[in-house]
Amino acid sequence: MVLFAAALFAVLPLSTDIYLTAMVDLGRDFGVDVAGVQRTMLAFTLGFGLAHLAIGRFADRIGRRPTAITGLAVYTLASILAAAAPSLDLLVAARFVQGMAAATGPILSRTLIRDTVSAEGAGRALSKMGAFVGIAPLTAPLLGTFAAHLGGWRATIIVLALYGAVLATILWRRLPETRPAAVADAGGISILAALGQLMRHRVFLIGVAALAAGYGILLTWLTTSGFLLIGMLGMTKLEASAVYTIGSAGFVSGSLVSMRLAQKLLPRHILRTSAALLLLGTTMPAVVLWLGFGHWAVILAAVFPFYFGWGIGQPMAIAITMRPFPEMAGQASAWLGLFQQVGGIALSLVAAHFGGGLATPLTMALGAALFTVAVFVPPPKG
Questions:
Q1: Is 60 among the domain residues?
Q2: Residue 379 domain-assigned?
Q3: Which of 230, 277, 290, 343 suits 70 as a labelling partner, its CA being 20 to 30 A distant?
Q4: How many separate domains does the chain show?
């Protein structure tokens, strides 16, 4: 089940990371700058976030299996349309639909773990899932670079269509229905009523704030760093791919460390360790850029603590946020994902507004500060 959950969650990093090094080519093809290209990523993110309002309720009401298969089928079709888009506006529209369908993956991955793993073991299971998921951002930049070399940026999106089609087929054949019987009634709860219940839990608010800030750092890096690394610093696509790939290896390593820490430390202590690494991995890139260093290895060393820290912190934040809601796991996962996307969009727009460059790590540092504030809030008593 962890493998199924990881394969579903991987839809998100694949969809964002696979054309990181091809974004400059995309901009050149359509004659737009960083803000124009960012529209394709933000359209995906916006669609991804809005779909959370419905998918969680569908998963609780009609079941995990049909929701997963339907979502992946739509994702595959939207990917084909995006690859064939003749204009930037049509590409943005296709990416919006693709993002809506892709939301099925992370929502159901968290839900499958909550359905089948005890609350006490959820942190370890999510860390294990995170390690498997890390294969996606680990391989996506190099895969995207290779695909773009063969067929341009459109070929990178065709890879996403193939992934969606293959995964939908596998889940249709092998995924069992995991929805507990008690969840059927929760599916009848409206999305606003569900939100009201969730917002009464302080631990949910703390977890959502941490995840929104952390994802904001990540999305800021993903949507603007291509122009920083390739456009401003003059790196080759292979060098930029190395930064993304080795950085993603740090995320995988962090997830593996999180599995071990979950056996020894309280979740809040793990999150505070993650906060320190996020602060280091976002302030150091700003410092090295300000000092004039632009070699890819220096940038990688500076940003690596962020990747490692996010690998430690993300699964633990998800686990504690989902823990109080076994009877409405789908809706809890959906609202968690929506708030996370809002945080990502808000921070990335700040970096894009200031044109990327040094604004990219400075905006990331702001996100790290917000994450730190969230995880150092005292836990609720009892």
A1: yes
A2: no
A3: 343
A4: 1
What is the separation of C-alpha 80 from the centre of its chain, rounded to a whole number of angstroms?
A: 22
- Residue pLDDT, tens place only, 176-195: 887 776 665 555 567 777 77
Which CA distances in Å does 114 have to 60, 72, 126, 158? 12, 21, 9, 32
- Structural domain for 263, as ranges: 2-176+187-374
CATH number of the structural domain spanning residue 172: 1.20.1250.20
Q: Report the pLDDT value the prediction gives residue 244, as an integer from 0 to 100.
A: 85
Four-CA torsion 362, 215, 145, 27, nearest 10 degrees: -60
**Which of 75-79, 183-187, 333-337 shows the highest mean pLDDT?**
75-79
Residue 74: pLDDT above 80?
Answer: yes
- pTM higher than 0.85 for the full model? no
Residue 95: band (very low, low, confident or very high) from pLDDT cuts 50, 70, 90: very high
What is residue 184's predicted lDDT score, i.e. its pLDDT? 55
Residue 277 lies in a domain: yes
CA 265/CA 257 separation, integer angstroms? 12
CB atoms within 10 A of CB 309: 29
Residue with tokens 């791919």: 241
* Residue given tokens 């690859």 in the structure block: 83
- Three-state DSSP state, 134: coil
